[in-house]
């Protein structure tokens, strides 16, 4: 997906010039690379647009689509030059597509850019970096094109090429009445899960019938009763181009996560759709389709990369035969030759040939053996008798080929095989009369057609963003399965033939103005490439003047400033060394004596001179001078009166010399004093030892640098002292450690290694948790990364002066920033294996650390996880869920077996249930440190839901004395006691006085209807005291944060269709009359403001039909009619109880982006109101009050409380952050997955 994210050479033809001015050789100003050997152009990836590139290449290689788009001229689409003219409508998207297709056809560049096209979509840089689904893009792009082409001759372009229809039919088994419904499609979406391939998926969709029988009957409108019926679907109209979308992404409801289906899914190169069509009487070509594009997805369901295999229908590209294919053809030819030789040695072939050469087409059997001897030089008895028997018996055994005379003396060939040998057509098929088997004749003809097509000029290419590679047709089979597999298939009708003029002609039907633009661009490209080639031969040389340098510490250093000591010269590398010398003379005002030019190099120690440049006739490129090379200009002998020794043998080396300093009690261990020393690379180590070490001292070297591991330090032995610095491997940046005699205890003399690297000597903190009654004590234990945890524990017990018996009954547990004790560390781990940072805090606690086969788990009890303390337990990883639960119940003292275990989810709430009680913890991926929740209640059987039921009682506003009859379907949201919401990090202030009474639990099948749930709820003891006539007098809501959430409508809908989770709770609200809400009805709680007070009358339920429109204008008229007030004399607002805020619903359309369509602008169900069932709408009567403030005193109190809670939490976090600064260093930040954002393309209005 991010293949070319950091490449910066954008398309040459672009309205947007990207990149800043840089040096002429920078990549930004270089002309784009020309096309490669395939002669096809790729498309640049803008960061995350591989899905777009794959679809655009497919449309580009659909010639009919491309030419239909080219047929729309500027008189219909407008011109890109008029984009900024407000009085002219320019259809930008089709214009940019035309321009992109022209670039892909004609512009000589490796890859085109889609920057202009995506800008016409209204996308910003964030959208171009975001991954999207190509199937979603296909539908959205076609919709945008249809909208853009309204009112032009191409208004039906998409429908003409891609539109098809499916008819769904239900046939009554009694009256044979057919009920049908027709659906349109631009692409067919087919299942992948549990399906072997495309043909099986189409068979399941369009051949298999679904029967309504037994308990599942169909109500026939003609019979007016429930009857048996058959339901089926067929393809009624086939489009010229068939797009097939494969459903590879599914959702696992058990794991509550998406996954990609990677099983094998086959699809044919050619497919006959006759079995799946409603009408089957047409010719075969009407149903035959050929595959020409396969969009491939590589990766998982949350990201990946797209590329596309495409068939070059117009033979625009150059498909070269690969070496491996040539090798394969050679092997096939050799195998064929071998088979021919075997065939020639076959007696059947030899005898048929001998008989065929006879004029009479028959021969005496006795002479047949003689003819064989003359032809092969070997008789039948000698060559074939042992294997095949006598010749006469062999002829009788092959009576289907040889015809013996009645007296068995003569033999001839049967007529049909004589015809096969001499009367077949050019294809090698038997010439049959029309009366012969017509099926076989048709199959042979079809086979010939397939072979002819497979050897035609159309070849396949892999277009992977900027890269285009030829592939073989059989490579498509590799995309049947796996993480890299086919995702979209594109077929074209076989009867669609391309004109001969289009073959290998990229200029075919390209509009004249685009031809001119591309021709001009190619001319400019060629000119830029010539200029670039010339610029590539220019090199920059840095001329170091010897008169401005001095020699000290073994290297050359400028005596003046860099600007005065170094001259920069740009010269063509095709010029000679004499030309360079002449150019230097011209630069310098005066030079005395010989001028010697030598190559030089800047080293860490300074400048060093290497080879002298000789031969004035040699070119600069031939001497090896490259761009940016350093050239030293001097007399060839000395600099500043001091002799300079040039060459590789005298190269100076800069070494880091380390000496030990004293021990640091601050916790960082011993440290080094570091200095630098320059020595020639040919100096002996003995010279280095004399200069640096004291008598009796030793030197260790580390060629990897001073900050590496202990094992990289090696003592220089006595026998190596005669070796030079270069031979032992010391280079610039290498470190040597000089140890005096009193420091040599750190060295293992036998192995010549350093015992411990000083930087690793540090400490860990250990806190005593074994004697809680005593004063808490904390000690520091010195350790290295290789120290074993058991040694640290023993040292800590000794330092804390605890009893030795704790050695076998204690463990070390890390303490996190919040002061929580984490899982014990295995005692055989080192500090490094335990992933402990130096300075970490550990707790010394009672109990043994778990071994490698045990798990250390936390567990809590009940649903209130915030206030429940965590308990700990050690169990075997092979223990079952039931055994683990029993151990936890025993430790916590809970009675009975009416409990089950759940995982703790990321919100610190009880999540997924461990439903398989016999499964082992290891099989369920339960790990050490996990927290499990003991939850009351048995888990329901598989396929059943256990739903807690709450009774939701409407409240009457305090201070109001309306009767029950006046409170029909009403609810007042009173503000009383308030509490902090446990979910989320930010403090939330929610109502807790909602009148909810727990009624009990209901176990019900997921296939039951909502009406069944209400009936079972009515049987609970709590409901027995209430008089509810029928389920129609109950309203069901999901419960979210102890408030009504989603309204469940339609009593005849199955519970599974509501997608209720395992933790869903339902609240039941009583009604005074039956209610049957339609799918477009919106239930609102409407309340009128009390004049002169900051308060409201009780809420009234208002059912609003939004099928026609859901706009502010329509809602105002609905409310005005409800309260019998003039529409201009009311103000309305929506209440957001979680924020204690009111948002006024304006009288006019919302001020949203002009690119969005008008209907979307006005919809109250979209941003910013997101109007839904149960929302509170406040109404102000402007006839009685002028103020438009909708807030109440309760809102002020709620906001103030939220503000105080936020400040307290902020202070708490700051204090916690300061406390944990040291411990939190080096933590790796968690990379959260970005939220998914819907894909959209902004289109102007052209109606």
From TrEMBL:
Stretches the record annotates as Disordered: 17-40
CC terms in the record's Gene Ontology section: cytosol; nucleus
Top class in the EC scheme: hydrolase
InterPro entries per record: Papain-like_cys_pep_sf, Peptidase_C19, Peptidase_C19_UCH, UBL_USP40, USP, USP_CS
One Gene Ontology biological process: protein deubiquitination
Keywords: Hydrolase, Protease, Thiol protease, Ubl conjugation pathway
Catalytic activity reported: Thiol-dependent hydrolysis of ester, thioester, amide, peptide and isopeptide bonds formed by the C-terminal Gly of ubiquitin (a 76-residue protein attached to proteins as an intracellular targeting signal)
Enzyme Commission (EC) number: 3.4.19.12
Family: Belongs to the peptidase C19 family.
Keyword Aminoacyl-tRNA synthetase attached: no
Keyword Acyltransferase: no
GO molecular function, one term: cysteine-type deubiquitinase activity
USP domain segment(s): 41-494
PANTHER family cross-referenced by the UniProt entry: UBIQUITIN CARBOXYL-TERMINAL HYDROLASE (PTHR24006), UBIQUITIN CARBOXYL-TERMINAL HYDROLASE 40 (PTHR24006:SF842)
Name of the featured protein: Ubiquitin carboxyl-terminal hydrolase 40
């Amino acid at each position: 997906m991010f293949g070319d994210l950091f490449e910066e050479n954008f398309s040459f033809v672009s309205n947007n010039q990207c990149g800043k001015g840089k040096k002429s050789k920078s990549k930004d100003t270089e002309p784009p690379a020309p096309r490669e050997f395939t002669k096809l152009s790729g498309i640049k990836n803008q960061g995350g647009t591989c899905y777009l590139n794959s679809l655009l290449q497919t449309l580009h290689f659909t010639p009919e689509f491309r030419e239909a788009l080219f047929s729309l001229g500027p008189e219909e689409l407008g011109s890109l030059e008029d984009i900024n003219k407000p009085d002219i409508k320019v259809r930008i998207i089709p214009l940019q597509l035309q321009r992109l297709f022209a670039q892909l056809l004609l512009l000589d560049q490796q890859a085109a850019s889609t920057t202009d096209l995506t800008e016409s979509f209204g996308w910003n840089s964030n959208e171009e970096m975001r991954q999207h689904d190509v199937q979603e893009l296909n539908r959205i792009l076609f919709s945008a094109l249809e909208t853009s082409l309204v009112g032009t001759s191409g208004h039906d372009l998409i429908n003409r090429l891609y539109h098809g229809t499916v008819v769904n039919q239900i046939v009554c088994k009694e009256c044979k009445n057919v009920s049908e419904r027709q659906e349109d499609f631009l692409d067919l979406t087919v299942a992948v899960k549990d399906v072997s391939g495309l043909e099986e998926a189409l068979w399941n969709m369009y051949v298999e019938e679904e029967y309504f029988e037994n308990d599942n009957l169909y109500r026939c409108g003609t019979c007016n009763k429930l009857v048996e019926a058959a339901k089926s679907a067929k393809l009624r109209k086939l489009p010229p181009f068939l797009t097939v979308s494969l459903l590879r992404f599914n959702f696992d409801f058990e794991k509550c996560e998406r996954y990609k289906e990677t099983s094998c899914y086959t699809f044919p190169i050619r497919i006959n759709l006759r079995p799946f069509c409603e009408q089957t009487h047409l010719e075969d070509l009407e149903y035959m389709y050929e595959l020409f594009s396969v969009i491939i997805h590589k990766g998982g369901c949350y990201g990946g990369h797209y590329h596309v295999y495409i068939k070059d229908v117009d033979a625009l590209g150059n498909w070269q035969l690969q070496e491996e294919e040539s090798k394969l053809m050679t092997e096939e030819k050799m195998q064929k030759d071998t088979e021919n030789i075997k065939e020639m040695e076959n007696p059947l072939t030899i005898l048929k040939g001998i008989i065929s050469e006879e004029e009479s087409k028959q021969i005496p059997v006795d002479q047949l053996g003689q003819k064989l001897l003359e032809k092969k030089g070997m008789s039948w008895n000698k060559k074939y008798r042992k294997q095949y028997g006598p010749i006469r018996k062999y002829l009788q055994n092959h009576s289907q080929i040889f015809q013996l005379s009645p007296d068995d003396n003569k033999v001839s060939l049967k007529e049909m095989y004589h015809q096969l040998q001499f009367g077949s057509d050019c294809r090698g098929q038997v010439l049959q009369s029309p009366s012969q088997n017509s099926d076989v004749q048709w199959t042979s003809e079809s086979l010939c057609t397939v072979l002819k097509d497979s050897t035609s000029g159309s070849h396949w290419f892999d277009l992977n963003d900027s890269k285009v590679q030829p592939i073989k047709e059989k490579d498509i089979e590799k995309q049947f399965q796996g993480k890299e597999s086919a995702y979209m298939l594109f077929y074209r009708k076989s009867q669609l033939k391309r004109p001969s003029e289009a073959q290998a002609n990229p200029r075919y039907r390209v509009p004249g103005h685009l031809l001119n633009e591309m021709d001009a661009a190619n001319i400019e490209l060629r000119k830029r490439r010539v200029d670039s080639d010339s610029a590539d031969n220019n090199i920059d040389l840095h001329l170091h003047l010897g008169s401005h340098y001095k020699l000290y510490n073994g290297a050359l250093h400028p005596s003046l400033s860099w600007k005065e000591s170094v001259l920069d010269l740009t010269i063509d590398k095709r010029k000679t060394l004499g030309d360079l010398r002449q150019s230097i003379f011209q630069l310098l005002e005066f030079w005395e004596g010989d001028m010697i030019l030598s190559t030089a190099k800047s080293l860490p120690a300074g400048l060093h001179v290497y080879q002298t440049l000789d031969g004035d006739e040699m070119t600069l490129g031939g001497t090896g001078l490259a761009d940016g090379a350093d050239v030293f200009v001097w007399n060839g002998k000395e600099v500043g009166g001091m002799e300079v020794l040039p060459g590789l043998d005298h190269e100076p080396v800069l070494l880091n010399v380390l000496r030990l300093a004293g021990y640091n009690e601050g916790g960082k261990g011993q440290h080094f004093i570091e200095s630098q020393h320059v020595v020639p690379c040919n100096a002996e180590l003995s010279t280095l030892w004399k200069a640096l070490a004291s008598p009796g001292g030793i030197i260790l070297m580390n060629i990897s640098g001073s900050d590496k591991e202990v094992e990289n330090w090696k003592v220089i032995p006595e026998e190596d002292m005669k070796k030079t610095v270069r031979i032992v491997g010391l280079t610039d940046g290498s470190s040597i450690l000089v140890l005096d005699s009193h420091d040599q205890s750190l060295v293992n003399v036998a192995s010549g290694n350093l015992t411990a690297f000083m930087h690793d000597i540090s400490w860990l903190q250990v806190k005593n948790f074994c004697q809680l009654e005593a004063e808490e004590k904390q000690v520091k234990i010195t350790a290295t990364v290789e120290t074993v945890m058991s040694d640290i524990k023993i040292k800590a017990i000794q330092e804390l002066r605890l009893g030795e018996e704790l050695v076998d009954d204690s463990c070390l547990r890390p303490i996190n920033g919040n002061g929580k004790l984490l899982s014990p560390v295995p005692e055989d781990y080192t500090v490094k294996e335990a992933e402990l940072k130096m300075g970490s805090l550990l707790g010394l606690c009672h109990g043994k650390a778990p071994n490698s086969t045990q798990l250390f788990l936390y567990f809590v009890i009940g649903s209130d996880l915030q206030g429940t303390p965590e308990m700990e337990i050690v169990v075997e990883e092979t223990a079952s869920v039931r055994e683990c639960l029993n151990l936890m119940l025993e430790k916590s003292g809970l009675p009975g077996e009416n409990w089950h275990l759940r995982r703790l989810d990321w919100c610190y709430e009880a999540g997924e249930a461990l439903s398989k009680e016999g499964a082992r913890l290891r099989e369920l991926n339960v790990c050490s440190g996990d927290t499990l929740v003991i939850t009351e209640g048995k888990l329901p059987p598989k396929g059943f839901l256990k739903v807690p039921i709450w009774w939701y009682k409407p409240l009457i506003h305090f201070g109001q004395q309306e009767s029950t009859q006046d409170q029909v379907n009403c609810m007042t949201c009173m503000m009383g006691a308030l509490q902090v919401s446990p979910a989320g990090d930010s403090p939330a202030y929610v109502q807790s006085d909602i009148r909810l009474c727990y009624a009990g639990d209901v176990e019900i099948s997921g296939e039951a209807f909502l009406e069944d749930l209400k009936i079972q709820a009515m049987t609970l003891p709590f409901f027995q005291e209430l008089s509810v006539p029928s389920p129609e007098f109950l309203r069901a809501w999901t419960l979210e944060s102890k408030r009504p959430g989603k309204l469940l409508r339609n009593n005849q809908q199955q519970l599974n269709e509501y997608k209720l989770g395992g933790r869903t709770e339902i609240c039941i609200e009583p009604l005074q009359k039956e209610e049957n809400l339609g799918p477009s009805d919106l239930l609102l709680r409407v309340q009128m403001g009390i004049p002169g007070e900051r308060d409201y009358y009780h809420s009234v339920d208002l059912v609003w039909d939004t099928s026609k429109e859901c706009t502010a204008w329509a809602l105002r008229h609905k409310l005005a009619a409800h309260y019998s007030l003039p529409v201009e004399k009311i103000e309305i607002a929506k209440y957001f109880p979680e924020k204690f805020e009111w948002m006024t619903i304006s009288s006019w359309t919302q001020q949203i982006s002009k690119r969005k369509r008008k209907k979307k602008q006005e919809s109250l169900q979209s941003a910013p109101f997101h109007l839904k069932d149960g929302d509170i709408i406040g109404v102000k009567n402007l006839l009685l009050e002028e103020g438009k403030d909708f807030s109440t005193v309760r809102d002020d109190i709620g906001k103030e409380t939220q503000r105080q809670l936020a400040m307290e939490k902020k202070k708490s976090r700051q204090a916690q952050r300061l406390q944990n600064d040291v411990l939190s260093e080096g933590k790796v930040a968690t990379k959260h997955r970005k939220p998914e954002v819907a894909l959209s393309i902004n289109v102007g209005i052209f109606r």
